[in-house]
Amino acid sequence: VARTTTYHATAMIKILEKAITHKGFSVVDILSQCPTYFGRKNKFASPIDMLNYYKTNTTPIGSEAKEKNPNLIERGIFVQEERPEYCLEYDKIIEKALSSSAARVVVNVLS
Q1: Cα gap 95→97, rounded to integer Å
Q2: Which of 69, 77, 99, 111 is the most buried (most CB within 10 A)?
C-alpha cells in the first residue's frame, strides 16, 4: 500500500515498479491534478497550482515535517508484506484435490 503524487514523478515511477513486481495484491494511491472538478471546487487557478499544492502539502512517511504539521499528507510505501500469492495457493489446492483417489474416480467417470 503506497501513496505518491504526480509532482513526485521519480518516486511515483519507483513505487509503481515495486507494486508491479510485488507478488500478490498491491495498491498505489496517486494524487493527480484534476482542474475540471477538484480544481474548481478548491479554487485552484491552474493544474500548476495543484502541482505546487502537492509539493508543499505532502511529505515523506515519518518525516520531521509531519511531526511539526500533522495536516501534511504522507507519501511513500505504507505497508509491504510478503504473503503467498492467491493464484499460486489456489493451484496448490486444486492439485492436491486432483491427486486424491476420490478426485481420480470423478475424473475417470467424467472422461
Answers
A1: 5
A2: 77
Question: Angle at the Cα of 2 (from 51 to 31), degrees rounded to 5?
Answer: 20
- Rounded-to-integer distance, Cα 34 and Cα 54, Å: 12
**Cα gap 70→50, rounded to integer Å:** 20
Per-residue pLDDT reduced to its tens digit, 9-68: 999 999 999 999 998 889 999 998 887 787 778 888 888 888 999 999 999 999 999 999
H or E stretch covering 29 = strand 28-31
Q: Is the dihedral of CA 43, 73, 17, 82 positive or negative?
A: negative
Model-level pTM?
Answer: 0.72
pLDDT tens-digit readout, 73-86: 999 999 988 888 88
